[in-house]
Amino acid sequence: MYELTAHAQQSLQKRSNIRLEWLEQAITTPQLVHIDPTDAELEHRLARIDEFEGRVLRVIVNPKTRPIRVITAFFDRNMRNKL
After folding, report:
1. What distance in Å separates the CA atoms of residue 39 and residue 46, rounded to the nearest whole number?
2. Are the C-beta atoms of 46 and 76 separated by less than 8 Å?
3. Model confidence at 18: pLDDT above 90
C-alpha cells in the first residue's frame, strides 16, 4: 500500500508513460535502493522496466510512513543500461 504526494500525482500526470503497475513494481521489488543524499528518511527505489525498452524507473519514497509515501517518479536516463 502506498499514497502519492501532490507532487507525485503531478509528476505522473506529466509523465503519462509511467504505468501504475511499474510504479508498484519499483516500490515493492526494486532492483536497487539508495538512501537520498539530502534527506536520510527518503529512499530511491530503482527498477528496470523491460516492457519500456529496459529503461530504469526511479521512485523516491518515504518508507517510514504508513502507508509508504511516494514523493516522485521518473525514468532515470543516467541509470539506463546500469541495472
Report:
1. 17
2. yes
3. yes
